[in-house]
């Protein structure tokens, strides 16, 4: 080993006659005898050959240290890669969710719009219909009232007793019908209010 080292000892660039037989410890470099006496005067210089195993050891230690650093860097690389992948997947998922939500809202709006249009077109509670029903009710009520008055005026007790149930039923039915008409007129009014409100919003 020593022989090989000796045979390969390079010459100094600055002092061509001299070989780099020494190693300057503070400067960490090979030096020749002249360098040692001139440029590296006062530096702790030792025989190069004696330094080889020590430097080898230093380099091996550096290699060992770098190995664990490389391992942890590779691990970091994998983790970051995985994270960035899941990050990308996540943002794609969020994008998809937004689209789905948007489409859902659009479909719902379209549905509501169609429903409203249908209601406006085919509402069974058209004011005209309600009006007609009210007129019919008034006619029926007037008739019932007239019949009842006539029976009372006629003062025929058998007729009065005989018609009692019919007339009471007729008044009851008319009363029920009247409540129903009030409800219809009211809900129609509310419906129209809703439409107007909606219209003012659109
Ligand atoms: Zn030199
Ligand atoms: Zn030096």
From TrEMBL:
Residues 74-94 are annotated as: Disordered. The keyword Ligase does not apply. GO terms for molecular function: zinc ion binding. Keywords: Metal-binding, Zinc, Zinc-finger. Gene3D superfamilies: Classic Zinc Finger (3.30.160.60). Pfam families: zf-B_box. The keyword Transmembrane does not apply. It comes from the Eukaryota. Residues 7-48 form the B box-type domain. PANTHER family: BONUS, ISOFORM C-RELATED, MEIOTIC P26, ISOFORM F. This is B box-type domain-containing protein. It comes from Stichopus japonicus. The lineage of its organism: Eukaryota, Metazoa, Echinodermata, Eleutherozoa, Echinozoa.
């Amino acid at each position: 080993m020593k022989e090989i080292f000796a045979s390969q000892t390079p010459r100094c660039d600055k002092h061509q006659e001299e070989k780099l037989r020494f190693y300057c410890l503070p400067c960490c470099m090979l030096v020749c005898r002249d360098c040692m006496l001139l440029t590296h005067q006062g530096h702790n210089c030792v025989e190069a050959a004696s330094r080889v195993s020590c430097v080898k050891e230093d380099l091996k230690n550096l290699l060992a240290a770098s190995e664990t650093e490389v391992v942890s860097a590779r691990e970091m690389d994998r983790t970051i890669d995985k994270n960035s992948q899941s990050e990308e997947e996540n943002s794609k998922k969020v994008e998809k969710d937004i689209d789905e939500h948007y489409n859902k809202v659009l479909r719902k709006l379209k549905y509501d719009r169609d429903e409203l249009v249908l209601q406006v077109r085919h509402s069974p509670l058209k004011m005209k219909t309600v009006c007609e029903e009210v007129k019919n009710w008034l006619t029926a009520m007037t008739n019932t009232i007239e019949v009842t008055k006539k029976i009372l005026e006629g003062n025929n007790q058998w007729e009065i007793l005989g018609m009692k149930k019919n007339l009471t039923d007729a008044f009851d039915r008319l009363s029920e019908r009247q409540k129903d008409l009030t409800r219809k007129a009211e809900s129609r009014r509310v419906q129209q209010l809703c439409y107007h409100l909606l219209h003012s919003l659109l």
